[in-house]
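Structure representation:
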Amino acid sequence: MMTQPATKAEPINALVEVETLKAVEVYGNGRIDSIIDQVEREARAHKADISTPAGRKAVASIAHKVARSKTALDTMGKELTEEARQTINAVNEERKRVRDRLDALKDEVRAPLTNWENAEKNRVADLENRVARLHGLTNFESIPDSKEIEEAITLANSLYQHDWQEFQGRADTVWSEVKARLETMLAERKQYEAEQEELERLRKEQEERRIKEEREQI
């Protein structure tokens, strides 16, 4: 009975062409260290540049290839023939070393990108928080007096004076709305306070006249 010829495996997209290696050769004669050394050399030879999208993509690609190298070598250990499994304990230890070293290498290679991503998250979160604070300045727990409204306007101007970067459009819109709302509130409150002062002045005059009239009658 004729057997079909073996088809060529798809490329694994790893830093080392592990698809050309045989499991017994890799795990049976101490070659694993030299293979991992080769992966490390090729990964560390790449100079990380996270200043551009292309540079960040390149870092992510190298880290991905390290992960694929780890997966390919680990899978190769799993697929050893039964005859070779007499050394299963040693193989498993080697597989663990493969995983540990290449996981560490992947983290090392990706560290510049990971740090940049974390910094980006913090930067965006800070801008989001600043927009939210600006937006919330028209919300008061109770009816504010004119002094409180003026303080809110001062704070709004202070928050707006910032390098908003890609948030500039949102900041412009929110600040314009908040400023307009606070200025309207301030004008209405000052008018109300002036009216109350005038009413109080009239009340005092009326009270003084009443007291004067009572004294004249006496």
Remarks:
- The chain is about 70% helix and 0% strand.
- The chain has a mean pLDDT of 84.
- The helical segments are 23-28, 32-44, 53-78, 88-135, 146-160, 168-217.
